[in-house]
Amino acid sequence: xxxxxxxxxxxxxxxxxxxxxxxxxxxxxxxxxxxxxxxxxxxxxxxxxxxxxxxxxxxxxxxxxxxxxxxxxxxxxxxxxxxxxxxxxxxxxxxxxxxxxxxxxxxxxxxxxxxxxxxxxxxxxxxxxxxxxxxxxxxxxxxxxxxxxxxxxxxxxxxxxxxxxxxxxxxxxxxxxxxxxxxxxxxxxxxxxxxxxxxxxxxxxxxxxxxxxxxxxxxxxxxxxxxxxxxxxxxxxxxxxxxxxxxxxxxxxxxxxxxxxxxxxxxxxxxxxxxxxxxxxxxxxxxxxxxxxxxxxxxxxxxxxxxxxxxxxxxxxxxxxxxxxxxxxxxxxxxxxxxxxxxxxxxxxxxxxxxxxxxxxxxxxxxxxxxxxxxxxxxxxxxxxxxxxxxxxxxxxxxxxxxxxxxxxxxxxxxxxxxxxxxxxxxxxxxxxxxxxxxxxxxxxxxxxxxxxxxxxxxxxxxxxxxxxxxxxxxxxxxxxxxxxxxxxxxxxxxxxxxxxxxxxxxxxxxxxxxxxxxxxxxxxxxxxxxxxxxxxxxxxxxxxxxxxxxxxxxxxxxxxxx
Length: 563
Hints:
Mean pLDDT: 86
Largest sheet: 8 strands, antiparallel
Structural class: mainly beta
Shape: elongated
Low-confidence stretches: 267-271
Helix content: under 10%
Number of strands: 39
Strand content: 35-45%
Number of helices: 3
């Protein structure tokens, strides 16, 4: 790869970058004058080692490339100690729009995570920015690798606004002792990381739903309402403007950035699938702290009202949510991030375990306004002692059912707001379907889905929840359609193949999404004879969602790929 514009050349062998150098000096034995031109290619039948000459050449191509835009291509095309923004050009810039000056970061060959070079940020005068273009809609993944030198620290931030007035979205500090914190929406969330190794940084920024998530080395750290200003949590712009790499925010900065990438996400994403298996949390952590879709009855995350993560039990290792009566726990999940869904269809799935000497409970609400003290219940479900259950929904009289204690069991609720219909399933058996807008006593209510309330009501209450999944479903599904949607998926975790046992008579469309909502596989009109084979050998380790759909149904199942 030869860039005459930047007077650089890159040599790749079998797809791997092995050398980068300045193009213009004479590379031959005679040391001629420098010429920044490209003349020709010479296959010469002489060996410097006086060995017999025999080799073959095929598929010789010459292609004139458009301007290079990717981070790796433009950064690797530069040479060590060249200014990064000057070499890479827009959308890279500096705070004062002065590429090639002391504000610019340096390209370095001291460290890299693939390729030969990376960005080195250590000088207090450096202030490098990446311009996203003042995005106001869409869903984006921002990712890069970060290396912090020994006894050093690092800093960067993301901003809502830059050119129209400075407004920060989040600030991130990596300290020299391996601790750090992520500040967003006025909340600091602590984390730990390793110095002298490459750390993976990932953001999911969903401007359509005003939501953002931060992951460090694949572990969830913080979720927040994107438009809130980082420092104090006040309302700001729902916009993505720049990323700012500013070493002077720390005392002993020396860090490297590599494999920087920004891509727009399409397919199922935030708002389409909400999934919580508690693996990103630690034992004893309060669930709602720093998590905008979870709260408590009195809006007091991190207090005794908050539900607590535990490693004592789990449906999918290592953690679950433990709810114990008499502790004041009253956790709230807001559907659609802010609550108050009035259209479309939603499927709520979770795993539940009630010990044999205890009981459990959850409810769904049409209205939840703890400021105006305005509440309206849509469903109350009791998992009582001795495996006896009781559901209050749609009718004056409660509906009795049985369930298995001391085991993880699936619970599902299908809610079709467009058709004012709901159905609850326990262990894949429909317990009741009803007109959703009614209240729990059968009286007229409101066609709205606001929250799920996890409230252990008695001193004997003690239960665990895991693998909570909320996803957009098809409207107009019948009882039979939802029952058929309860598929058997195995093995889980999977290695090279997943099998789906089903009772669906017709062919279906199959889609596989990763945890970020990116489509990994899509197959139309899958031949279906009661079992569908889904190859997973080429998927990386991690969590995936398999969606099956046709004109009559849509269902999403979670799998884990572990090679």
